[in-house]
Design goal:
The structure is a single chain. The chain contains 3 helices and 11 strands; from the N terminus they run ααβββββββαββββ. It is α+β, with helices and mostly antiparallel strands. The chain folds into 2 domains: 12-43; 73-201, Immunoglobulin-like. It is rod-shaped. The N and C termini lie far apart (136 Å).
């Protein structure tokens, strides 16, 4: 080879065509792969069907409306009222401002006293308690006065008394209410956690 001839040097790799072709192919593959993943994610995302949810809500509301309301059992003075396995009877009412005399208790308003009979018709003993009774006047509810009830039942241990099946217990339930309260109804239930209730009109 003569000295006059120039020796051609090798081109740098980045100036070669195949390098750029390969780079373009790789970029294209990456770009298309990202789009496919985005499409798959979009297609797999669950869509909320608002109309279906509304229809289900309407159906639930219709079912609630169609359910019949439980009728509250009622009775009057002298009439037995059975609630669950317990029979309640109010035999009379009276009022007072003091129960138990000098060492007893004075009312803040007026004592409304009920003579009641509680009969156990279940298969197990029950314990009579003031939680069996609530006095109502319209939408106002009065709780029994336990202390006054103790003074009123000195002769016959009515409260916290075990009553066996087939046995009845007689006693007095006392409420301290404003004098002259009208439209009184006694609500009875089977104990503090009783889910069944009944009402006895005291008019």
């Amino acid at each position: 080879m003569s000295e006059g001839k120039k020796i051609k040097g090798k081109k740098p790799f980045y100036k070669r065509i195949w390098v750029w072709v390969l780079a373009v192919i790789i970029i294209g593959v990456i770009a298309s792969g990202g789009e496919e993943e985005g499409t798959e994610q979009a297609s797999t995302t669950p869509k909320t069907d608002v109309s279906v949810e509304k229809n289900e809500t309407k159906k639930e509301e219709q079912v609630d409306k169609e359910e019949p309301e439980e009728k509250v059992q009622t009775a009057g003075i002298g009439q037995p009222l059975k609630v669950g396995e317990v029979v309640f009877t109010v035999t009379g009412t009276s009022t007072a401002t003091n129960i138990g005399g000098e060492y007893g208790k004075n009312s803040s308003g007026e004592f409304f006293i009920l003579d009641v009979i509680v009969k156990n018709e279940g298969k197990e003993a029950i314990t009579t308690d003031s939680s069996f009774f609530k006095l109502k006047s319209g939408d106002i509810t009065y709780e029994a006065d336990t202390e006054a009830g103790i003074w009123a039942n000195q002769d016959n241990n009515f409260f916290l008394q075990d009553v066996n099946p087939g046995i009845e217990n007689k006693g007095k339930v006392v409420f301290d209410i404003p004098a002259g309260t009208s439209n009184l109804v006694l609500q009875v239930q089977t104990g503090f956690w009783g889910t069944e209730t009944g009402e006895i009109s005291l008019q």
